[in-house]
Amino acid sequence: MGLGGIHIWHLLILLVIVMMVFGTKRLGSLGSDLGNAIKGFRGAMNDDKDKNKEPEKVANDLKGDAHARETAETDTHKNS
After folding, report:
1. Inter-residue contact 18 to 27 (CB < 8 Å)
2. Domain encompassing residue 53
């Protein structure tokens, strides 16, 4: 019962070897650095999504401005 011939015992032995080579302090800092990198990546992806939504908002604002100008022109003609 494993993933492609890799059993839980293989993973445990590999984990022990990695801990012996790198040490627990270095692995802890590596984990926090990896977490910060993932947070930064997610933040950049969310910023990119916000930038993609912004042109739609600008287009809607422009439509609203055009409608306001048309209304102002119509009111001007009525008052003349």
Report:
1. yes
2. 24-79
Residue 32 lies in a domain: yes
> Residue 73 domain-assigned?
yes
Angle at 25 between CA 24 and CA 26, to 5 degrees: 95
What is the C-alpha to C-alpha distance for residues 50 and 45, in angstroms, rounded to an integer?
A: 9
Q: Find where tokens 């401005």 sit.
A: 65
pTM of the model: 0.42
Residue 51 lies in a domain: yes
Q: How many helices (H) and strands (E) does the chain have?
A: 2, 0
Give the tens place of pLDDT for each residue, 23-48.
Answer: 888 888 888 999 999 999 998 888 87
